[in-house]
UniProtKB/TrEMBL annotation:
Keywords, ordered alphabetically: Endonuclease, Hydrolase, Metal-binding, Nuclease
InterPro entries with a match to the protein in the record: HARBI1_dom
Residue numbers spanned by region Disordered: 1-25
Provenance organism: Actinomyces ruminicola
Cofactor(s) needed for function: a divalent metal cation
Protein name from the UniProt record: DDE superfamily endonuclease
Amino acid sequence: HDAAALRASGLLDVPPQDLPDGQAPPTHIGDKGYIGLGMITPVRKQPDRPLRKSDKIQNTSVNRIRYVVERAIANLKTWRVLHTGYRRPIQTFPQTITAVLALTFTYTP
């Protein structure tokens, strides 16, 4: 379901003409549900053999990044103010959420 929603969103389809000269398309990171979409994902274990040491190292690296992102999202979901509608003009939402995240990460040990 998540992979289908991601495909439908168009986030993976960045037209080259929209990128600055010489810049590669953005690299996305995801869990094993996104394997095959051109994203950085953990390596899936084959049913008939264990993961190689290099695959385990890659999985650890990917999951360390994913963990931080997942915790940030979970933290945002607990905020009571996010359980109500956004009360300011919608054009101000990106600036507001950026400021809130900056304050959170600045003052959270």
